[in-house]
Amino acid sequence: MRLPMPLPFRCGAGIAALLLLLPAPVRSAEPRGASALTQEFCVSCHNQNLVGSPAPNLLDPLWTNGGSDDAILRNIRQGFPASGMPAFAGVLTEPEMRSIIGYLRSLAVDYAAGRITHPTQPKSLQLATELAGMRIETYVADLETPWGIAFLPDGGMLVSEREGRLRLIRAGKLEREPVRDLPRAFVKQDGGLLDVAIHPDFSRNRWIYLAYVEAGIRADTSMTVVIRGRIREGHWVDQQEIFRAPPERYYSGHIHYGCRFLFDRAGHLFFTIGDRGHSEDAQDLASPCGKIHRVMDDGRIPPDNPFVNQTGAWPSIWTLGNRHPQGLMFHPLTGKLWESEHGPSGGDEVNRIEGGRNYGWPVVSSGTDRRMQFLPEKSGMESPLAAWTPSVAPAGIEFYTGDKVPAWKNNLFVACLGGEQLKRLETNGDRVTHEEIVFKGLGRVRDVVTGPDGLLYLAMNTPGRIARLVPDESVAKASNANPKSAGTVLLKP
Predict the structure, then answer these.
(1) What confidence category does residue 11 fall into, taking pLDDT thresholds of 50, 70 and 90?
(2) What are the residue numbers of the active site?
(3) Does the global pTM surpass 0.85?
């Protein structure tokens, strides 16, 4: 259910109690209104046909917190904030809540009869985009929630699966066994194995960087950890710690862990940590949460980090006020750092990142949260270059630098979990000037990377696969290009 909460996985364990269906169908009095509400609030978490991933299936008979009308309505009203599901009181009216329940019950009948199924995607599908005829094709299938992609100098590919596995792909073939002896990841909701990256001098030193979620010493607490190591004969070896928070920063709740990697030309490692559902931490320099960090390749603190000499500040902090940053990339022309992050409900952002700057969360946002009041802007806090309402849940980002699609050169591509879409943004300096939805509804897009062959590769969920975009001259360009996609706000600094 696409709820006004953080993505990916806006709907936590509590959502299973929200709208899982009773056996007896009760038709909504206003099916068209309920259908529109379901599309607005449900599909980006529960899949386009509501059968789940990453949030639970809404059309099966499983229950967690009571299945009566009154129990479901209570859960919708009050939410489960610790699991990432907000209260809907004040967001939806009671008739709207009841209409959604009734509408989903009616769909349960079709699901039970086999008329609604889990989606399958064709191995190849033609796309008429604004600037080029393309084809999206499955490169490797049979993955489980792929999160990050890292190309190796020999043409191989590393893929992290959120379920805790690191996979190796060679010549388009997935090796049967995952890398052995990885640290055990805490896999729940947003948690698991996150990004993967290789050292800029990997050919010489063989360092591989991983982010994963680790269980805390207190029950049901967890936090992001960053490590590096090597692969030797299929085993993870030589592990070194890059980042680990103190025990008091291991929080309950299973949301907003980050973590995306990026190296700069000087060899510094940037990585992101979300606010972990503790929004106040994003403005607290003593906390690593809600920040973008910068360290040396071995985890040491660069002496020119902006807060390194400030008493009590976490020394690796590069920026603060970042809610749940999911994408990092340098602009190929300006060299400036860009970032994507999730807003509360709406207010998803693309930002230009500069060291020492404050990006506003939870003071400034164009999104909504019934428990909070936000300012549209504030002196000393940065405004985004682009923001989306309703939410699109932007994940990985990539400035295209390949040569296979010249018309896309230097365009920014945004992987979106919400709407299962890929966006293409045209930029002029620090301005976003145009947006195109390259495709929509083909599976949640977690990461986008330019491959060594000049093609864009995508980590896609539901189903889990690596796909790629290939030029196809047999496909005509789109003739009805829309300069602004519905629900998008393009902001000029």
Answers:
(1) very low
(2) 256
(3) no
